[in-house]
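Worked example (supplementary).
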Amino acid sequence: MTEGKIAKGDVLRVDSFLNHKIDVRFLSEIGREFHRLFADCGVNKILTVEASGIGIACVTAQFFDCPVVFAKKSRSSNISSAVYSAAAHSYTHGTDNNLTVSREYLTDADRLLIIDDFLARGEALNALVDIAAQSGAALVGCGIVIEKAYQGGGDMIRARGIRVESLAKIASMSEDGIVFDHG
Amino acid sequence: MTEGKIAKGDVLRVDSFLNHKIDVRFLSEIGREFHRLFADCGVNKILTVEASGIGIACVTAQFFDCPVVFAKKSRSSNISSAVYSAAAHSYTHGTDNNLTVSREYLTDADRLLIIDDFLARGEALNALVDIAAQSGAALVGCGIVIEKAYQGGGDMIRARGIRVESLAKIASMSEDGIVFDHG
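After joint prediction of all chains, the assembly is encoded as:
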């Protein structure tokens, strides 16, 4: 995590290895660790959200030998009987997104692992959890690369009884640097 | 390609394995083939565009042992000195996008392979080629999963002297089915 940059407005920039340029070797290490954590859970599908979740999910899926489904973001509230959908506000971009997944790609026969790059206030992850619930799939848990623990999203979702594993948990962040939570 | 569906408006839907649900084993076969085609080109970086290019690019990059950079799409014409940018109209979505890449992630020291899922009229690929040219990087070529050859985008880009390799070339498409170009 020496490559992360702290930008204005409490934004951690990880453009250099995760969000714009992608260090694919690093993704393999991430995928291996998610597989170690969720190896015994019978995962048969990985759910993520476009765009930056897709690379992490695909490399992780190689370890589970399973397909990926990525939720699509749209500005409009696309109420269609053909999709599961849930709203998610992006504090980073100041936009309201609607996340959608076609019903044909998630069913109650699935055992899902949700993967995403960031967890802060939990808006996107909460929407993915809602979509999983709409599908009737069994949700074995969520694998997150970086959790900004002080923003509370992770604990909110854990309080729903959902297992959330974050590879790096940030306890606090300021211009002086990042304090990790090793607990 | 037995899984592709032909939808209205000359749209080939590959949601079931490439564009929404992703068959990650299939991505490995794609990556292996792109590596075979461009193995001797000294590729040190792969350039693609969000969202559906990212998974293909990341798995392909594993074969080249190199990083991926994905261009971001925005509706606004984001003229900033910090980015390379090029306009691309999406006929599928009826939108005008501006593709951008941070200058710090592409330089004249790079030997680029461009990867994308679809090539039809060539709007997105043309924009990626323009971005590569702005960076001064050497472009070794473009690897495309599915080219709709009858829409002419591939030949337009080949006419610019750029190597374009498409794993499946569609000669024509109608409600009766798909005719592949095996030439």
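Two points are worth noting when inspecting this output. Residues 85 and 100 of chain A are 4 Å apart (CA to CA). The mean pLDDT of chain A is 92.
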